[in-house]
Amino acid sequence: MRIAVSPAIVYPARARTPTPQAGQPCGIIPIMAMGDSFSFIRDTQPPESRAEVEYQPKTAEEARRRGDAALRQGEYEEAFRYYKLAIQMDGNSSERYMHLGDAYAFADQPARALAYYHRARKMNPRDPEPYFALGEIYRRYGRYDAAIAHFRRAIEYGADNAFVQFKYAEVLALSQQYAKAVEAGRAAVNHEPSNGFYRFWLADLLEHIGEIEEALQEMEIATLLNPEDDYYHFRFGLLCIENDDLPRAVECFQRALAIKPQRALYLMLLGDVYTLMARSHEAQQAYQQAGELDSYDRAELQRARQIAGLTNGRLPNYTDGDSPPRRE
Question: Which domains does the chain have, with CATH numbers?
Fold first, then answer.
């Protein structure tokens, strides 16, 4: 099963076709969650050109391999041609239609990708891969109900692994179904307990819904599994501030700074913690070492202080989020 061994259906970031909003002109037909229509995506791609045939593969598998090679080189039209030849030679295989759907998805032609994924689904209704691929397309274009339905069906038909559970949890969170998202996130962690990313994501979600104690547990494990990730230590430090564990927050920011010693954001938060602990001399040293923050770091500092609950009067003489507290 390709889903289990390779998350290759996670498409790279690129310019996206905008998701239509309510009140848009006609020509966009809404879809049902598990329906076959995909006309909510505007297919503005020009008609496919008839590429001159330079080589005719002898087998469907050879055509598939040549399509894979063309896709890796970004030669999309060539990849389409080979995958279609594979279908012509082996039209009874749903996997051939999946390959062509994947190619269209990578080429940012979602309407055509959906068409071939649906064909694969109809050919093999209990294969989880088409449902997963359809879920990914629908998620990318904001059709969260459809994405949830397809991810759930993929899991039901056997794609019950950490990656699929994570994708399912992700779209549940996007649709604000937080209790179900936490359940799916925990399932991902249970499938791969040594994967720090799944634990970090779950901790972030738990913090968002106010489950701070469990968030702390998951974030701590994430830092132990990924000790060289400065951002994990930084986020753990914010959780410790929120939980009033200031000495531990100092340790977290110091670990983050050991990895990135000049990160102004980390120094500012370390200064904030020292301020809360009434260690004014150490606080001023941290603030001075941070220096002037650029616009990006100022925005990140404001966001971090909000996460840690430092913008509600808790930080003495708090100003506007882009400078240290004023000294009396």
Answer: 51-125 (1.25.40.10), 141-226 (1.25.40.10), 233-328 (1.25.40.10)
